Amino acid sequence: MRLKDKVAIITGAAQGIGAATALRFAAEGADLSLCDLNAGRLEEVAARVRDQGRRCLTLVGSVSDRAFVQDLVDRTRSELGGLDILVNNAGIIRDAIGHKLTEEQWDQVIDVNLKGAFNCLQACMIPMREQGSGAIVNLSSVSRYGAVGQFNYAASKAGVVGLTRAAAKELGGRGVRVNCVAPGFVATEMLATVPEAKLEMFKNFAVPMARLGQPEEIASVILFLASDDASFVNGQTINVDGGAYTQ
């Protein structure tokens, strides 16, 4: 077991990549603290974690709320006995063509995707620095290269890469590694609103492997970066996109 008796926080854990990561971490021996806004689905994931014999704490709230994030970290440490890993997965989309993008849509995405990632990273890095160990995995996206209708999302995910690199430089000497995973087109509910014809175009023309990724495939890379297998990997962003982007 690569995460035996480790304690991990996973944000946005009720579905998709977050849920897949929670189940994979539990199978590898971790106890988990999960958060999301969807209480019902979060409890379903937690039940599956507990079925694997692991402890699981759930908290409902937004990572854009600093008080909630601090409570998440404090309760994780007090109720699960420590904090070894953070997976900064929570994210939203509010797509619109640039000239139609509202200030509210911009603020919502930046608040969750970038400010939320910072809130969680900062709250976790303090105890990790003190104990001299820890692994933080942030979730970016290949959309950081730019995508039509995603001024807000692309900016937020590019910001997460910058946040990752800065934190890795600050924390590497303290025994804390910070890395980033950038998924491509993955079969999650975030793609549920994309027309089937457009998905087929993505698969057949944008992705050399000619298919969508699965949440479990992203979870495997997150697991690697969170584990001691990646003990000398720091400040990196790994695209998991079937070869769609090679730069």
CATH topology assignment = Rossmann fold
Q: Can you say what the CATH homologous superfamily is?
A: NAD(P)-binding Rossmann-like Domain
Strand content: 15-25%
Separation of the first and last Cα atoms: 34 Å
- Number of strand segments: 7
Structural class: alpha/beta
Tell me the number of helical segments per DSSP (H or I, 4 or more residues long). 7
CATH architecture: 3-Layer(aba) Sandwich
Low-confidence stretches: none
What is the 3D form?
A: globular
Assign a percent range to the helix content: 40-55%
- Supply the CATH class: Alpha Beta
Explain this structure to me?
The structure is a single chain. The protein is an alpha/beta fold and 247 residues long. The chain has one domain: NAD(P)-binding Rossmann-like Domain (Rossmann fold, 3-Layer(aba) Sandwich), CATH 3.40.50. The protein contains seven helices and seven strands. Strands 3-2-1-4-5-6-7 form a seven-stranded parallel sheet, sandwiched between helices. Strand 2, helix 2 (39-51) and strand 3 form a beta-alpha-beta unit. Helix 1 packs parallel to helix 2. The longest helix is centred in the middle third of the chain and has 29 residues, at 103-131. The protein is globular, with a radius of gyration of 17 Å.
